[in-house]
Design goal:
- The protein is α+β, with helices and mostly antiparallel strands.
- The protein has two domains: 3-169, Phosphatidylinositol Phosphate Kinase II Beta; 175-367, Phosphatidylinositol Phosphate Kinase Iibeta, Chain: A, domain 2 (2-Layer Sandwich).
- Helices cover 37% and strands 17% of the residues.
- It contains twelve helices and 14 strands.
- It has helices at 3-18, 27-38, 51-61, 66-71, 114-134, 154-158, 175-180, 199-202, 211-214, 229-248, 321-336, 349-362; strands spanning 46-48, 85-88, 98-101, 106-110, 143-149, 164-169, 187-191, 225-228, 251-252, 255-262, 298-299, 305-312, 316-317, 364-367.
- The strands form four sheets. It has a six-stranded antiparallel beta sheet. A four-stranded antiparallel beta sheet has the order 7-10-12-11. It has a two-stranded parallel sheet with strand order 8-14.
- Helix 10 (229-248) runs antiparallel to helix 12 (349-362).
- The relative contact order is 0.14.
Protein backbone atom coordinates (compact mmCIF):
# COMPACT_ATOMS: atom_id res chain seq x y z
CA UNK A 1 0.00 0.00 0.00
CA UNK A 2 1.47 3.34 -1.09
CA UNK A 3 1.58 6.71 0.64
CA UNK A 4 -1.65 8.05 -0.89
CA UNK A 5 -3.58 4.93 0.05
CA UNK A 6 -2.34 5.04 3.66
CA UNK A 7 -3.28 8.69 4.03
CA UNK A 8 -6.68 7.93 2.55
CA UNK A 9 -7.24 5.10 5.02
CA UNK A 10 -6.41 7.43 7.92
CA UNK A 11 -8.99 9.95 6.75
CA UNK A 12 -11.68 7.35 6.15
CA UNK A 13 -11.19 5.74 9.55
CA UNK A 14 -11.48 9.12 11.27
CA UNK A 15 -14.82 9.76 9.55
CA UNK A 16 -16.25 6.27 9.98
CA UNK A 17 -15.10 5.73 13.56
CA UNK A 18 -16.36 9.10 14.76
CA UNK A 19 -19.83 8.27 13.45
CA UNK A 20 -20.02 5.00 15.33
CA UNK A 21 -19.71 2.64 12.36
CA UNK A 22 -16.28 1.17 13.06
CA UNK A 23 -15.94 -2.54 13.80
CA UNK A 24 -15.32 -3.70 17.36
CA UNK A 25 -11.86 -5.22 17.81
CA UNK A 26 -10.32 -7.46 20.42
CA UNK A 27 -7.75 -6.20 22.93
CA UNK A 28 -4.95 -7.94 21.04
CA UNK A 29 -6.08 -6.38 17.77
CA UNK A 30 -6.08 -2.93 19.37
CA UNK A 31 -2.56 -3.45 20.74
CA UNK A 32 -1.27 -4.57 17.34
CA UNK A 33 -3.01 -1.61 15.70
CA UNK A 34 -1.32 0.76 18.17
CA UNK A 35 2.16 -0.49 17.30
CA UNK A 36 1.33 -0.49 13.61
CA UNK A 37 0.27 3.16 13.80
CA UNK A 38 3.25 4.14 15.94
CA UNK A 39 5.78 2.85 13.41
CA UNK A 40 3.85 4.02 10.36
CA UNK A 41 5.20 6.96 8.37
CA UNK A 42 2.04 7.71 6.43
CA UNK A 43 -0.97 6.23 8.22
CA UNK A 44 -1.63 8.58 11.15
CA UNK A 45 -4.31 8.46 13.79
CA UNK A 46 -6.67 11.35 13.10
CA UNK A 47 -9.44 12.82 15.21
CA UNK A 48 -12.23 15.28 14.49
CA UNK A 49 -11.93 18.84 15.74
CA UNK A 50 -15.18 20.41 16.99
CA UNK A 51 -17.29 17.50 15.64
CA UNK A 52 -20.51 18.77 17.21
CA UNK A 53 -20.27 22.11 15.41
CA UNK A 54 -19.73 20.53 12.01
CA UNK A 55 -22.44 17.94 12.65
CA UNK A 56 -24.85 20.78 13.44
CA UNK A 57 -24.00 22.53 10.17
CA UNK A 58 -24.43 19.32 8.18
CA UNK A 59 -27.71 18.24 9.74
CA UNK A 60 -29.49 21.50 10.48
CA UNK A 61 -28.22 23.92 7.85
CA UNK A 62 -26.97 21.90 4.88
CA UNK A 63 -29.55 19.09 4.89
CA UNK A 64 -26.95 16.30 4.98
CA UNK A 65 -27.84 13.28 7.09
CA UNK A 66 -25.22 11.32 8.98
CA UNK A 67 -25.99 8.19 6.97
CA UNK A 68 -25.54 9.91 3.61
CA UNK A 69 -22.36 11.59 4.76
CA UNK A 70 -20.72 8.43 6.09
CA UNK A 71 -21.86 6.42 3.07
CA UNK A 72 -19.76 8.67 0.84
CA UNK A 73 -16.66 7.43 2.69
CA UNK A 74 -17.46 3.74 2.40
CA UNK A 75 -16.06 1.68 -0.46
CA UNK A 76 -18.51 -0.08 -2.74
CA UNK A 77 -19.15 -3.78 -2.24
CA UNK A 78 -17.21 -3.85 1.01
CA UNK A 79 -13.87 -2.99 -0.61
CA UNK A 80 -10.81 -1.69 1.26
CA UNK A 81 -11.29 1.61 3.09
CA UNK A 82 -8.76 3.45 0.97
CA UNK A 83 -10.78 2.71 -2.17
CA UNK A 84 -13.50 5.12 -1.04
CA UNK A 85 -11.12 8.04 -1.74
CA UNK A 86 -9.46 8.78 -5.07
CA UNK A 87 -6.19 10.71 -5.10
CA UNK A 88 -6.27 13.83 -7.27
CA UNK A 89 -3.21 15.20 -9.02
CA UNK A 90 -1.29 18.32 -8.07
CA UNK A 91 -3.73 21.21 -7.61
CA UNK A 92 -1.56 24.07 -6.37
CA UNK A 93 1.51 25.47 -4.62
CA UNK A 94 0.55 24.66 -1.04
CA UNK A 95 1.91 21.13 -0.94
CA UNK A 96 -1.51 19.79 -0.11
CA UNK A 97 -2.76 16.35 -0.99
CA UNK A 98 -6.24 16.11 -2.48
CA UNK A 99 -8.77 13.31 -2.62
CA UNK A 100 -12.33 13.01 -3.81
CA UNK A 101 -14.84 10.55 -2.48
CA UNK A 102 -15.77 7.81 -4.92
CA UNK A 103 -19.16 9.43 -5.49
CA UNK A 104 -17.41 12.82 -6.01
CA UNK A 105 -19.63 14.66 -3.55
CA UNK A 106 -16.75 15.64 -1.25
CA UNK A 107 -13.13 16.66 -1.49
CA UNK A 108 -10.52 16.03 1.19
CA UNK A 109 -7.70 18.56 1.27
CA UNK A 110 -4.69 18.37 3.55
CA UNK A 111 -3.63 21.52 5.38
CA UNK A 112 0.08 20.85 6.04
CA UNK A 113 1.25 24.34 7.02
CA UNK A 114 1.12 25.07 10.74
CA UNK A 115 0.28 28.73 10.11
CA UNK A 116 -2.81 27.70 8.14
CA UNK A 117 -4.33 24.93 10.24
CA UNK A 118 -3.60 26.81 13.49
CA UNK A 119 -5.32 29.91 12.05
CA UNK A 120 -8.41 27.94 11.13
CA UNK A 121 -8.54 26.14 14.48
CA UNK A 122 -7.68 29.04 16.79
CA UNK A 123 -8.97 32.15 15.00
CA UNK A 124 -11.45 31.46 12.24
CA UNK A 125 -13.31 28.29 13.23
CA UNK A 126 -15.85 29.80 15.63
CA UNK A 127 -16.64 32.82 13.40
CA UNK A 128 -16.83 30.49 10.38
CA UNK A 129 -19.34 28.16 12.06
CA UNK A 130 -21.48 31.08 13.19
CA UNK A 131 -21.33 32.73 9.77
CA UNK A 132 -22.29 29.59 7.87
CA UNK A 133 -25.21 28.98 10.23
CA UNK A 134 -26.59 32.49 9.74
CA UNK A 135 -25.75 33.03 6.05
CA UNK A 136 -27.37 30.23 4.04
CA UNK A 137 -26.29 31.87 0.77
CA UNK A 138 -22.64 32.16 1.78
CA UNK A 139 -20.14 31.38 -0.95
CA UNK A 140 -17.44 30.23 1.48
CA UNK A 141 -16.61 26.62 0.75
CA UNK A 142 -18.55 24.32 3.05
CA UNK A 143 -16.24 22.52 5.46
CA UNK A 144 -17.92 19.31 6.64
CA UNK A 145 -15.17 18.11 8.98
CA UNK A 146 -11.77 19.20 10.26
CA UNK A 147 -9.33 16.40 11.10
CA UNK A 148 -6.12 16.60 13.11
CA UNK A 149 -3.40 14.12 14.01
CA UNK A 150 -3.67 12.50 17.42
CA UNK A 151 -1.28 10.26 19.36
CA UNK A 152 2.41 9.52 18.96
CA UNK A 153 3.85 8.08 15.74
CA UNK A 154 6.99 8.26 13.63
CA UNK A 155 4.97 9.82 10.81
CA UNK A 156 3.99 12.68 13.10
CA UNK A 157 7.58 13.19 14.28
CA UNK A 158 9.07 13.21 10.76
CA UNK A 159 6.05 14.98 9.19
CA UNK A 160 5.97 12.44 6.40
CA UNK A 161 2.18 12.69 6.10
CA UNK A 162 -0.21 15.66 6.47
CA UNK A 163 -1.26 16.34 10.05
CA UNK A 164 -4.53 18.13 9.25
CA UNK A 165 -7.28 17.71 6.67
CA UNK A 166 -10.55 19.41 5.80
CA UNK A 167 -13.52 17.71 4.18
CA UNK A 168 -15.31 20.13 1.87
CA UNK A 169 -18.01 20.14 -0.76
CA UNK A 170 -17.13 19.62 -4.40
CA UNK A 171 -18.89 22.11 -6.66
CA UNK A 172 -17.65 20.12 -9.66
CA UNK A 173 -19.99 17.34 -8.52
CA UNK A 174 -22.02 16.07 -11.47
CA UNK A 175 -19.38 16.78 -14.12
CA UNK A 176 -18.65 13.14 -14.94
CA UNK A 177 -22.34 12.31 -15.16
CA UNK A 178 -22.89 15.26 -17.51
CA UNK A 179 -20.06 14.02 -19.75
CA UNK A 180 -21.61 10.55 -19.85
CA UNK A 181 -24.85 12.15 -21.03
CA UNK A 182 -22.98 13.83 -23.89
CA UNK A 183 -22.95 17.35 -22.49
CA UNK A 184 -20.03 19.69 -23.15
CA UNK A 185 -17.25 19.53 -20.57
CA UNK A 186 -17.41 22.07 -17.77
CA UNK A 187 -14.96 24.99 -17.58
CA UNK A 188 -13.45 26.27 -14.35
CA UNK A 189 -11.32 29.20 -13.18
CA UNK A 190 -9.50 29.89 -9.91
CA UNK A 191 -9.78 33.67 -9.70
CA UNK A 192 -7.89 36.13 -7.54
CA UNK A 193 -6.54 39.64 -8.27
CA UNK A 194 -3.70 39.38 -10.80
CA UNK A 195 -2.36 42.91 -10.32
CA UNK A 196 -0.19 41.87 -7.38
CA UNK A 197 3.50 41.03 -7.59
CA UNK A 198 3.94 37.36 -8.50
CA UNK A 199 7.68 36.48 -8.57
CA UNK A 200 7.08 33.50 -10.88
CA UNK A 201 5.56 35.88 -13.45
CA UNK A 202 7.21 39.24 -12.78
CA UNK A 203 10.89 38.53 -12.13
CA UNK A 204 12.85 38.51 -15.44
CA UNK A 205 9.58 38.45 -17.30
CA UNK A 206 8.85 34.97 -16.02
CA UNK A 207 11.91 33.49 -17.70
CA UNK A 208 13.17 31.91 -14.46
CA UNK A 209 10.01 29.87 -13.82
CA UNK A 210 8.71 26.92 -15.78
CA UNK A 211 5.41 27.03 -17.65
CA UNK A 212 4.06 24.38 -15.27
CA UNK A 213 4.86 26.65 -12.34
CA UNK A 214 3.23 29.67 -13.97
CA UNK A 215 0.16 27.61 -14.82
CA UNK A 216 -0.60 27.46 -11.10
CA UNK A 217 -0.97 31.23 -10.84
CA UNK A 218 -4.42 32.77 -10.71
CA UNK A 219 -6.58 32.33 -13.78
CA UNK A 220 -8.23 35.14 -15.72
CA UNK A 221 -11.90 34.98 -16.73
CA UNK A 222 -12.04 36.84 -20.03
CA UNK A 223 -15.81 36.91 -20.28
CA UNK A 224 -18.86 38.05 -18.32
CA UNK A 225 -21.40 36.34 -16.11
CA UNK A 226 -24.66 37.74 -17.48
CA UNK A 227 -27.19 37.92 -14.65
CA UNK A 228 -30.58 39.39 -13.87
CA UNK A 229 -30.31 42.25 -11.40
CA UNK A 230 -31.74 40.19 -8.54
CA UNK A 231 -29.20 37.44 -9.18
CA UNK A 232 -26.30 39.91 -9.40
CA UNK A 233 -27.26 41.76 -6.23
CA UNK A 234 -27.53 38.52 -4.26
CA UNK A 235 -24.20 37.26 -5.63
CA UNK A 236 -22.30 40.46 -4.83
CA UNK A 237 -24.00 40.82 -1.44
CA UNK A 238 -22.83 37.34 -0.46
CA UNK A 239 -19.30 38.10 -1.64
CA UNK A 240 -19.23 41.29 0.43
CA UNK A 241 -20.44 39.54 3.59
CA UNK A 242 -18.06 36.62 3.17
CA UNK A 243 -15.01 38.75 2.38
CA UNK A 244 -15.86 41.04 5.32
CA UNK A 245 -15.63 38.04 7.66
CA UNK A 246 -12.28 37.04 6.17
CA UNK A 247 -10.89 40.57 6.28
CA UNK A 248 -11.90 41.02 9.93
CA UNK A 249 -9.83 37.94 10.79
CA UNK A 250 -6.77 38.94 8.72
CA UNK A 251 -7.22 36.45 5.87
CA UNK A 252 -5.78 37.21 2.42
CA UNK A 253 -5.07 35.35 -0.83
CA UNK A 254 -8.44 33.59 -1.02
CA UNK A 255 -9.91 32.98 -4.45
CA UNK A 256 -13.22 32.64 -6.23
CA UNK A 257 -13.56 29.24 -7.87
CA UNK A 258 -15.91 29.67 -10.82
CA UNK A 259 -17.49 26.84 -12.81
CA UNK A 260 -19.31 27.30 -16.09
CA UNK A 261 -21.34 24.67 -17.91
CA UNK A 262 -23.37 25.00 -21.05
CA UNK A 263 -27.11 24.86 -20.56
CA UNK A 264 -28.29 21.36 -21.51
CA UNK A 265 -29.98 21.32 -24.89
CA UNK A 266 -33.22 20.04 -23.46
CA UNK A 267 -33.45 23.13 -21.22
CA UNK A 268 -32.16 25.73 -23.66
CA UNK A 269 -35.49 26.27 -25.43
CA UNK A 270 -36.89 28.38 -22.61
CA UNK A 271 -35.15 30.62 -20.16
CA UNK A 272 -37.04 30.74 -16.86
CA UNK A 273 -36.92 33.52 -14.28
CA UNK A 274 -34.12 33.09 -11.72
CA UNK A 275 -36.38 31.71 -8.98
CA UNK A 276 -37.90 29.08 -11.28
CA UNK A 277 -34.86 27.92 -13.22
CA UNK A 278 -33.95 24.25 -13.24
CA UNK A 279 -31.06 23.04 -11.09
CA UNK A 280 -28.37 20.85 -12.58
CA UNK A 281 -28.16 18.60 -9.51
CA UNK A 282 -29.82 18.71 -6.12
CA UNK A 283 -28.17 15.76 -4.43
CA UNK A 284 -26.53 16.40 -1.06
CA UNK A 285 -24.13 17.82 -0.04
CA UNK A 286 -25.07 20.80 -2.15
CA UNK A 287 -28.40 22.22 -0.93
CA UNK A 288 -31.96 21.17 -0.19
CA UNK A 289 -33.77 20.40 -3.47
CA UNK A 290 -36.04 23.43 -3.32
CA UNK A 291 -33.19 25.94 -3.51
CA UNK A 292 -31.14 27.17 -6.44
CA UNK A 293 -27.86 28.85 -5.60
CA UNK A 294 -24.24 29.11 -6.58
CA UNK A 295 -23.50 25.60 -5.31
CA UNK A 296 -26.17 23.90 -7.42
CA UNK A 297 -26.09 26.15 -10.45
CA UNK A 298 -27.36 29.62 -11.32
CA UNK A 299 -28.53 30.11 -14.92
CA UNK A 300 -27.21 33.10 -16.82
CA UNK A 301 -29.72 35.66 -17.97
CA UNK A 302 -29.02 34.88 -21.63
CA UNK A 303 -29.82 31.20 -21.14
CA UNK A 304 -26.46 30.00 -22.46
CA UNK A 305 -24.74 28.87 -19.27
CA UNK A 306 -25.15 27.65 -15.74
CA UNK A 307 -22.63 28.92 -13.19
CA UNK A 308 -21.39 27.71 -9.83
CA UNK A 309 -19.03 29.56 -7.52
CA UNK A 310 -17.29 29.17 -4.16
CA UNK A 311 -14.64 31.02 -2.15
CA UNK A 312 -11.60 28.82 -1.48
CA UNK A 313 -8.23 28.91 0.29
CA UNK A 314 -8.97 31.36 3.10
CA UNK A 315 -6.43 29.96 5.58
CA UNK A 316 -3.56 32.44 5.00
CA UNK A 317 -3.66 35.02 7.82
CA UNK A 318 -1.32 38.00 8.07
CA UNK A 319 -0.69 37.68 11.81
CA UNK A 320 0.76 34.15 11.65
CA UNK A 321 4.53 33.52 11.67
CA UNK A 322 5.02 32.35 8.08
CA UNK A 323 2.97 35.19 6.54
CA UNK A 324 4.90 37.69 8.72
CA UNK A 325 8.18 36.28 7.42
CA UNK A 326 7.00 36.50 3.82
CA UNK A 327 5.86 40.08 4.35
CA UNK A 328 9.29 41.01 5.71
CA UNK A 329 11.03 39.39 2.73
CA UNK A 330 8.90 41.32 0.26
CA UNK A 331 9.58 44.58 2.09
CA UNK A 332 13.31 43.88 1.85
CA UNK A 333 12.96 43.00 -1.84
CA UNK A 334 11.12 46.24 -2.55
CA UNK A 335 13.69 48.26 -0.58
CA UNK A 336 16.93 46.65 -1.77
CA UNK A 337 16.27 45.16 -5.19
CA UNK A 338 13.20 46.23 -7.12
CA UNK A 339 10.06 48.13 -6.25
CA UNK A 340 7.38 45.61 -7.18
CA UNK A 341 4.75 46.18 -4.52
CA UNK A 342 2.98 43.60 -2.42
CA UNK A 343 2.20 40.01 -3.24
CA UNK A 344 -1.34 38.74 -2.67
CA UNK A 345 -0.04 36.96 0.45
CA UNK A 346 1.67 40.03 1.94
CA UNK A 347 -0.85 42.82 1.35
CA UNK A 348 -3.28 44.03 4.02
CA UNK A 349 -6.62 42.20 4.48
CA UNK A 350 -8.66 45.31 3.69
CA UNK A 351 -6.69 46.06 0.54
CA UNK A 352 -6.93 42.47 -0.63
CA UNK A 353 -10.68 42.46 -0.04
CA UNK A 354 -11.07 45.66 -2.04
CA UNK A 355 -9.23 44.21 -5.05
CA UNK A 356 -11.01 40.87 -4.72
CA UNK A 357 -14.46 42.52 -4.76
CA UNK A 358 -13.41 44.72 -7.69
CA UNK A 359 -12.45 41.59 -9.64
CA UNK A 360 -15.79 39.93 -8.84
CA UNK A 361 -17.82 43.00 -9.78
CA UNK A 362 -15.86 43.26 -13.01
CA UNK A 363 -16.90 39.83 -14.29
CA UNK A 364 -20.63 40.46 -13.74
CA UNK A 365 -22.87 42.02 -16.37
CA UNK A 366 -26.45 42.89 -15.42
CA UNK A 367 -29.24 42.32 -17.90
CA UNK A 368 -32.34 44.31 -17.03
CA UNK A 369 -35.58 42.31 -17.13
Amino acid sequence: MGRNEKIARSVVRAIIKANGTSKQRSTLARILAFFSLFFSLYRLLLRKIRPADFANLRRNHWDVTDDNYVQSFQAENGGPEEESLNAIGDMGFSGSTFYSTANQKYLVKSVPRHSEHSFFREDLLTPYVQHMATHPRSLLVRVFDFLAVSGASLGRVFRSAPSHHIVMDNIMYGREEAKKQGEADWESWDLKPTSYFYPERDIAGGALASEATKDHLADEFRDKIILHREQAEEFLSSLEADSKLLSEHNAVDYSLFLVRMRTPQRAAASVLPPTESAIVTTDPPLVPPSQSNWRTGVPSADGKYIFRASILDFFWAKHKAQPKAMTLLIKLWNTLISKQGHMSITTTPDEYRERFLKLCRGIVEIRED
